[in-house]
Design goal:
Number of domains: 4
CATH superfamily of the largest domain: TolB, C-terminal domain
Largest sheet: 6 strands, antiparallel
Number of helices: 12
Distance between the termini: 74 Å
Structural class: mainly beta
Low-confidence stretches: 160-185, 285-338, 356-360
CATH architecture of the largest domain: 6 Propeller
Strand order of the largest sheet: 1-2-3-4-6-5
Number of strands: 63
Length: 895
């Protein structure tokens, strides 16, 4: 089939040839519908009659199309042209790893970075039962911004997932020739079992990965002979030269990782790509302590291939000697101490306590360590550890992030925009503070510290009142998770740019003597036994726990970080890890759900609750907004890059609009549907409002720069102004941002209460918003833009209001239902009684300043749904008793 520039296939126009290989030609093309350049791969016309080639090409398309991961090439479309199949994929700018290496040695840090990205991509593929089987530098692409993409799944073999669960892909399993004597893949990187014609599983990719990593670190191929036969013989019988002989600076731990991958026997390699990624991440992770940087030690015992026959004996002897040495000093220091037994108990929450979604901190121990408070079913439950039953704490409906008073008599919690407290023994909940928060700590003298996010660290009385700013905010940082230290005169808190690693900072209550202690991940907790336990990202919605020894008196971190826990759930909102540790030595955590990393799906729901899934891929979506014509959805994808994307409702394709290291969120459509505006908080300290053509063409434009955090809410019908919300200290205000003739922001609604989730009516005359002025969240309507008196719409609480497309009703969300409230025209308008449209079993942002749904022109609602494989999941709380004994053993010290 002749292909040349200007050839048109569907809505793709061929531009120029990029390259060619044994499996086809690759051309650059223009997607005229979405206004972007893509890559199209064709099977050569001379080979279209070859069933085996066609079979492999089709398999490549199906395998790659089933995958969704930032380190795997994105497939947009599969089609045929004049009988020849083709694949449309994202167009990558950069070079292959082969071109990048080119016989040279990569810097160790760069090689580790690339290796970690490759391992994560393989882990995602293996998790869906897909094996690459042809991993080599030619099939690994380095983009200009340093991202690694795995290419060419043409030899992929679909298998059952490595964990034994049902595959998450709908691509049917198809046999690929593995008859004896048939060698698939590329000589030099192929595994021994493939060469022998034996069945190859995911560990074959791990061997190939090891050969690639070896070449990155040495500049030479691990296995290479004068001929293909000699190369195959080397793979089967020989060991590659030690990396340390060609690269004197190589880390011994990294060399052990490579050797572990290159074991001839698959059983002796890493068991999974996820384990491999974990080992590499441990090598790459660094924690800053004061002014020096130290490397994390890999938290696993690895094999050195050259001592394989005596490895386990040597390891046992080393472990015994280490244990005896530790025991000697341990017993000398505490001769009368009895070693407590560490044991674990996993408890499934009752079916009557379904998950509350990815809310913020959901677990906390009482000060005496006898009870555990946790969030489920939109309420807070309290369970004594000597009981199998948990009781609901009255007055905590909609609550999350529980915390205790020092005497254990009060339970504090947050709801969107408020912090409340309620007597543990029973009583009425009262409001302590109005405003958004991430992290609360109740200290002595009735003092409460609040992580005010963009308002800094705040201090308020436990009886309420006006908060004072204890740590003044700067425009570049977010502030969260304060925690009192013993004695109550000092505290630690998290300071960091959004979605980057936090600094853990110590400060006195009485003076500004802030001192950064270390750079950690998300959440942390100080233990009175002398440790700081913190979390580091280990995958989507999963973290691992690390610990360092810390002395409060000297403000010194005394040890290197040590891995002390794996696979803990992390909240997608608020960056909080689902773990708690009592000073008495008990650890509680929620295990990360592997299915949660798949993301969520977009669905359309009619007024009777009937669900129709949209063809978009699984992602972590937030703030979806339907275009004026209903054909597209602009939304914030919270995972990966935290950017704004546009989804095609009919085709399911995603077009990315923003590209930066910060957070782009809360998109809104222009009235003509051609432009999307969004709010941004960027790593370069830029905050404000941006816009770009909805089809992704052109460049983004900074409309208005702000020193405050901003959310976009709506575009006025005439297209001249935007409705925005500005976080000014502890309050959120509604402003009007006029775009013509020059951008100018004018405050519209300023109160002492917390306002959020405002939306403009279709005719632009009324603004609906949520306020907590009555003591709880209610929905109000006020004339726009002139202002004036307001009308309360909801009567029993409500959140996330949106207008119907005809402006004749409002739709709100309550804790367990989606409801509609009819509107009677007038000045001001009047509202009828709310009626339930359907039960709310869909995902809803836990942070108060976000909306998790929208409405189509035909009246259906766009919702974010939990994938089917997660629907029947019940939360499980794991309790580890006497965990401090294990912590001391893992860290090799006793505090």
């Amino acid at each position: 089939m002749p292909i040349s520039p200007n050839t048109t296939l569907a809505h793709y126009k061929i531009i120029s040839k990029i390259g060619e290989g044994g499996m086809g030609e690759v051309w650059r093309a223009r997607d005229n519908k979405l206004g972007r350049d893509v890559a199209i791969k064709f099977l050569p016309s001379a080979l279209t009659a070859d069933p085996a080639r066609l079979n492999r090409f089709e398999l490549e398309a199906q395998a790659a199309g089933a995958l969704n991961h930032p380190n795997i090439l994105v497939i947009h479309h599969i089609g045929t042209h004049e009988g020849a199949p083709y694949i449309v994929a994202e167009l990558l700018e950069g070079q292959t790893l082969r071109d990048r290496i080119n016989g040279t040695i990569l810097p160790q840090r760069k090689a580790i970075d690339y290796a970690l990205q490759i391992a994560r991509g393989l882990s995602a593929a293996h998790g869906k039962g897909i094996i690459h089987r042809d991993l080599k530098p030619e099939n690994l692409f380095i983009t200009n911004d340093g991202h690694v993409k795995i290419l060419d799944f043409g030899l992929a073999k679909l298998t059952a997932p490595v964990d034994g669960d049902q595959a998450q892909t709908e691509v049917p399993t198809r046999k690929v020739n593995t008859d004896p004597g048939t060698v698939m893949g590329s000589i030099g990187y192929i595994s021994p079992e493939q060469l022998k014609g034996k069945p190859a599983d995911h560990r074959s990719d791990i061997f190939s990965f090891g050969a690639v990593l070896y070449e990155m670190l040495s500049g030479k191929r691990a296995f290479r002979g004068e001929s293909a036969a000699e190369t195959m013989s080397a793979i089967l019988k020989e060991e590659p030269p030690d990396l340390s002989t060609t690269n004197k600076t190589i880390s011994p731990a990294l060399e052990r990782v490579v050797n572990h991958c290159l074991e001839k026997n698959p059983d002796e390699r890493f068991h999974s790509a996820r384990d491999l990624a974990f080992a590499i991440e441990a090598l790459s992770g660094s924690t800053t302590i004061s002014d020096q940087t130290i490397q994390l030690t890999p938290p696993l015992i690895e094999k050195t291939r050259r001592t394989k026959p005596t490895f386990w004996i040597a390891a046992a002897v080393a472990l015994l000697l280490s244990t005896l040495t530790f025991a000697y000093f341990f017993l000398r220091r505490t001769p009368n101490r009895t070693q407590a037994q560490v044991f674990r108990v996993a408890q499934l929450l009752p079916a009557s306590q379904p998950s509350s979604g990815q809310s913020r901190n959901r677990l906390v121990f009482s000060p005496d360590g006898t009870s555990l408070a946790y969030v489920a079913n939109q309420h807070i439950y309290l369970r004594r550890l000597d009981s199998l039953d948990a009781v609901e704490v009255p007055g905590t409906e909609g609550g999350m992030s529980p915390f205790f008073s020092p005497d254990g008599k009060w339970l504090g919690f947050t709801i969107p925009g408020q912090i409340k407290k309620v007597p543990v023994a029973g009583g009425t909940a009262t409001t302590i503070y109005s405003g958004d928060s991430v992290g609360v700590s109740w200290g002595p003298d009735n003092t409460i510290l609040i992580g005010g996010i963009y308002a800094g660290i705040l201090k308020v009385s436990s009886d309420g009142g006006t908060p004072t700013v204890l740590v003044a905010p700067t425009s570049s940082n977010a502030y969260s998770h304060p925690q009192f230290l013993p004695g109550g005169s000092q505290f630690i808190y998290a300071r960091g740019k959004p979605f980057n690693a936090n600094e853990v900072v110590i400060r006195s209550l009485a003076k500004a003597d802030d001192q950064a202690l270390l750079t950690a991940g998300y959440d942390f907790q100080y233990l009175s036994s002398g440790y700081i336990v913190y979390s580091q990202i280990a995958g989507s919605l999963a973290v691992d726990l690390y610990a360092v020894a810390f002395d409060v008196a000297t403000r010194k971190v005394l040890s290197k970080p040590v891995l002390v826990g794996k696979g803990v759930e992390v909240a997608s909102s608020g960056g909080s890890t689902q773990f708690a540790i009592s000073d008495q030595g008990t650890l509680a955590y929620l295990p990360a759900d592997p299915a949660a990393s798949q993301g969520s799906r977009l669905v359309a729901v009619d007024r009777q609750g009937k669900i129709s899934a949209l063809p978009t891929e699984l992602r972590e979506y937030s703030d979806p907004r339907v275009s004026p014509d209903g054909r597209y959805v602009a939304l914030h994808v919270t995972s990966d890059q935290n950017d704004v994307w546009v989804a095609d409702v009919a085709r399911g394709t995603l077009t990315r609009l923003s590209f930066n290291d910060g957070e782009d969120e809360t998109p809104a459509w222009s009235p003509d549907g051609r432009t999307v505006a969004w709010a941004s908080s960027r790593a370069d300290l830029t905050r404000g409002v941006f816009r770009r053509a909805a089809d992704g063409s052109g460049n983004e434009e900074l409309i208005w720069k702000s020193e405050h955090h901003v959310h976009i809410r709506d575009w006025t019908p005439d297209g001249r102004s935007l409705v925005i919300e500005v976080v000014t200290g502890t309050n959120t205000e509604v402003w009007r941002l006029d775009l013509e003739p020059e951008p100018k922001a004018v405050p519209f609604l300023q109160t002492q209460f917390n306002i959020r989730n405002s939306r403009l009516s279709p005719d632009g005359k009324w603004l609906v918003y949520v306020s907590n002025e009555s003591g709880r969240d209610e929905v109000y309507v006020q004339a726009f833009p002139q202002g004036g008196s307001k009308v309360q719409v909801s009567t029993n609480g409500g959140d996330q209001p949106i207008w119907s497309r005809d402006g004749r009703s409002l739709i709100i969300r309550r804790s367990d239902s989606v409801e509609e409230i009819p509107l009677q025209p007038g000045t001001p308008p009047s509202f009828g009684s709310a009626h339930v449209l359907f039960p709310d079993r869909f995902q809803s942002p836990q942070a108060g300043a976000h909306t998790g749904y929208d409405v189509f022109p035909d009246g259906r609602l766009l919702m974010i749904a939990t994938p089917d494989e997660q629907k029947n999941r019940r939360d499980e709380i794991v309790l580890v008793f006497n965990w401090l004994e294990e912590l001391e053993h893992l860290t090799g010290s006793e505090r």
